[in-house]
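$ run holo --ligand "aspartic acid" --emit tokens
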Amino acid sequence: MRVTNRKVSLAVLVVLGLAACQQQATAPKETADQFVERLNKEFSALHVEGAQAGWVQATYITPDTEAINARTNDRFLAYFNSAVEQAKQFDGQPMLPASARAIALLRQGVSSPAPNDPALRAELTQLDARLEAAYGQAKFCVAGDSGCEGVDVLGERLGATRDYAEALKLWTGWHDQGAQMRKDYERFVELANQGARELGYADMGAMWRSGYDMSPEEFTAVTEKLWNQVKPLYEAMHCYTRTRLATQYGEDKVKPGEPIPAHLLGNLWGQQWNKIYDDLLQPYPSVKVESADRALKEQKWDALRMTRSAESFYTSLGFAALPATFWERSMLTRPRDRDVVCHASAWTIDTKEDVRIKMCMQPNEEELFTIYHELGHLYYDLSYNKLPYLFQGGAHDGFHEAIGDTVNLSVTPGYLAGIGLARAVKPSNEAIINTQMKMAADKIAFLPFGKVIDEWRWKVFSGEIKPADYNRTWWEMRRQYQGIAPASPRDESQFDAAAKYHVAANVPYTRYFLSFILQFQFHKALCDAAGFKGPLHECSVAGSKEAGARLRAMLEAGQSEPWPVTLEKLTGTREMDASALIEYFQPLLAWLAEKNRGQQCGWT
Ligand code: ASP
Ligand code: SER
Ligand code: ZN
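-- output --
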């Protein structure tokens, strides 16, 4: 994910306020264009303090850093609300198109809006910081008090075990951590909804859906259309995977026609299934298209080497090397002696060159993909850092999430062999199907998860789902979309949604669903630019300066224009569309149709 902490200092705010008053007495009234110019400067100058406070809390959780972060955020949100208020006086006034766009973007500039009442705003920012800290500090004591582990180690262990009971214990132990966040989350939603209403939105969900250059209703329809395009692909993967799991664990545990037990997919949230590819999902084990897990461990790759590898992909496209401060200031592994938020994120502290990654990297292929993903955010930030502050963002947030993942689509078995992390495999149909299955366990498995998180939150924010029903509805929707279910009963004393970082930290999630569609559109366009001829799934743009130039042009535009314009420049279409994804997976889809024949697919 990418962190957008836009925060402000009270001291600076007071000075600016005085300056504005004095200016009003002596100078003519500010024009809309001057107003936007001032906002860009103020936001940009004030971003630093917020990012610093956010960074320090996330990399060193203590009551003090939590309080400092909450206070800084409080001041930012006060400034943000007043900026939105001031902007209203320019409604209908003449201004440059760029100023009109900046003012339109302004209102969606935060994901956790606050009420104007100072006491309520303080309460909201404290809850926000406390929820983030609680997620970061959550631990499950696997082996009594001595063996307490966080999300990074628990996730790794769940990915590795094939013991049903052990997996269930890890899964349950992590999900039980959500309960402590339930009361805080309930109150947080009330307050943030009030903030959204004061900004003129129906609720926080409507605010999130309004960030896409179209109405919230149109946006809901777009996501629905995309979901219907890809649903059959997911159903085919689900069917095959359930059959494989039934062979592994027995039909009494994994029942035909029933949802898959949520703890058996090698991932705490069942969102991506790559950890069970090597030994459970690989269609032709003798061909051995393996993940890079084994090689990374055998060759003792560390976090630095993995990060250098990611950087070298981007430089091969013509991007600059990362600045020295990146290497000095990033947190690439979990520190020994303090609590941190392990969920990977990318930060640009100063809106310029001070870019950093925060991660608890483990030497496995999933984490290798994650660091490639995170550097996508940083190269986006670095590419648009000359734009005015209000244009420094992804064309929409799904674009931001898609850059590093697009790059990952070029991390083919051939590319991995080239960097010594896979052995070269003789081309064959079996090798193609293996490779496609490895990608599908990540890219197709994720799709319903990417959709359901905000489906659920939109209903929570609109009031359709009441706090008393949080857990029941969460699992009903997970079952409906993903066809997975907890193996042991969950109830309303628990709060399983908060066991997912983005819920605890209130980060919108539809961006990932969009990204998983868009990245295939981007990949196809870049492969064309690189002059690649052949099936899409065989393309890697590594080393292509032409592809790099096309990508950079998109990144440099930031959010200065509506996203369909940006999309059209790269891909020739103004619409998000899953046909590139479907084209990419053609061989596997045909194979799965054959394989699933006669199986009882779907779930009740
Ligand atoms: N960047 C990923 C995400 O956006 C991080 C991860 O996979 O842990 O949340
Ligand atoms: N990085 C996102 C997550 O962890 C999507 O893969 O949920
Ligand atoms: Zn991301």
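-- notes --
Residues 1-2, 373, 377, 401 surround zinc ion (ligand 3) (CB under 6 Å).
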